[in-house]
Structures are given as structure tokens and as C-alpha cells.
Amino acid sequence: MVYNNVLLKVKDIQDISLVGDLLREQARRSSEEPGCIRFEVYHSKSDRQQFILVEQWSNQEDLERHKAAKAFTELYLPKVIPLVDRSPHLSDLIWP
Predict the structure, then answer these.
(1) Among 38, 48, 58, 96, which is least packed by CB within 10 angstroms?
(2) Is 59 exposed, middle or buried, given 0-12, 13-18 or 19+ CB atoms closer than 10 A?
(3) Residue 67 belongs to domain spanning
């Protein structure tokens, strides 16, 4: 199992709604990819510029395939990344 958590901080508050819409579409598309077990998008209540992606993939190959898929290359990279500061965190599950 591969766990990837990504923190996204919207640079300009005027883009918060747009980034939210783009991430919803990103999650919908990514959830349909082979090997995607979980793809969730959270919007912080304490910092409205902060979004969190919680991803779970069957294996590293599926995560790499995701990075070559249209949802990543045609939506996430060109439309979301320019609007945010991004901090990815490959993670180990320690519970349960």
C-alpha cells in the first residue's frame, strides 16, 4: 500500500473556490484510475487557503501511473499547481 498526503496552500484567496472545484474534478477522475483505493480532498476550516489530499494506492506503480494520467497531466499540473504551494508527504500508516 502507498499513502500519499498532499498539503496545498492557495496563493491568492480569490482562487480558493476555483481550486476547490478543480480538486473535486481531480478527485473524481483519479478515483476511477486503476489501483486508486482512496482519493479524498479536504478543505481546512481553520485556514481556508489550505486543502489536503489524502490518497491511497495499491502500489508504487499505480501512483506513478496516476502521475502520467490525464487527471494529473491535463488538470492538476497545468491548472492547480500554478495557484498553490504544494507539499507532498509519502507516508506510513501507523494505525490501524
Answers:
(1) 96
(2) exposed
(3) 11-91
